[in-house]
Design the sequence.
C-alpha cells in the first residue's frame, strides 16, 4: 500500500529507536524551476546525448547503469551553472548531493521508462546518513537517466527530475536482514562445518 514518504520516515525513525524529526520538506516553485532550468541548459551545452559511453564487456544491467551514471556526473558538472553534483560519502541514502544549497540527490539510470512499470527502485533503508548530513527537513531530488545501449556503447537519452515532497507516495517493504554479528549473538542453534 502506498504511503506518504514523510510518514515512512517517521515510522523508520521510530523503528531505529529515534525521536522522529521531519526529513522531507516541500519544494518552492522557484527552486524547482531553477534546478530544472540549470539541468536543461547543461544538457544542451554538454551535448551529452551525442556522446558515446563505452561499456565494459559482460556488464550486467546494474553495472551498465552505474557506468552511465559515472560518465554523466562529471560531464554534466562541467556545464551546470550555480549547481554541482557531489558524492555524499558513507553508505546509504543519499549517494549524491546537489550543491548550491545541499539537497539530497539520488541518481538512477534505466534503459526504459514506462509509467506503468511497478518494479521497485529503492531509495533508502536507514535514516542515519540523512539525519547526520542534513539537519531537519530538506528538499530531495530523484534524478532518473534514460539511456540506450547497443554495440558495446551507451548514450544518455534524457533525464527526469522528480522533486520529492512529504506527500510523495512510496511503497514500503519490510526486509529482515542478518549480519555475522547478529548471527553470532543469536540464541538459535548453529553449526560450523570445517
Sequence:
Amino acid at each position: 500500500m502506498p504511503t506518504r514518504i514523510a510518514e515512512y520516515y517517521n515510522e523508520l525513525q521510530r523503528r531505529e529507536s529515534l525521536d522522529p524529526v521531519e526529513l522531507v520538506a516541500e519544494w518552492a516553485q522557484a527552486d524547482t524551476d531553477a534546478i530544472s532550468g540549470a539541468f536543461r541548459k547543461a544538457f544542451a551545452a554538454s551535448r551529452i546525448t551525442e556522446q558515446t559511453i563505452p561499456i565494459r564487456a559482460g556488464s550486467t544491467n546494474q553495472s551498465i547503469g552505474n557506468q552511465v551514471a559515472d560518465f554523466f556526473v562529471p560531464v554534466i558538472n562541467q556545464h551546470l551553472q550555480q549547481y554541482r553534483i557531489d558524492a555524499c560519502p558513507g553508505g546509504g541514502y543519499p549517494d549524491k548531493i546537489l550543491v548550491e544549497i545541499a539537497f539530497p540527490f539520488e541518481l538512477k539510470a534505466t534503459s526504459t521508462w514506462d509509467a506503468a512499470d511497478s518494479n521497485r527502485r529503492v531509495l533508502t533503508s536507514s535514516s542515519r546518513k540523512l539525519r547526520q548530513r542534513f539537519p531537519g527537513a530538506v528538499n530531495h531530488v530523484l534524478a532518473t537517466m534514460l539511456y540506450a545501449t547497443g554495440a558495446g556503447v551507451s548514450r544518455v537519452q534524457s533525464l527526469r527530475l522528480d522533486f520529492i515532497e512529504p506527500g510523495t507516495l512510496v511503497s514500503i517493504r519490510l526486509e529482515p536482514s542478518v549480519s555475522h554479528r547478529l548471527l553470532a549473538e543469536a540464541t538459535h542453534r548453529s553449526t560450523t562445518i570445517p
Notes: The radius of gyration is 19 Å.
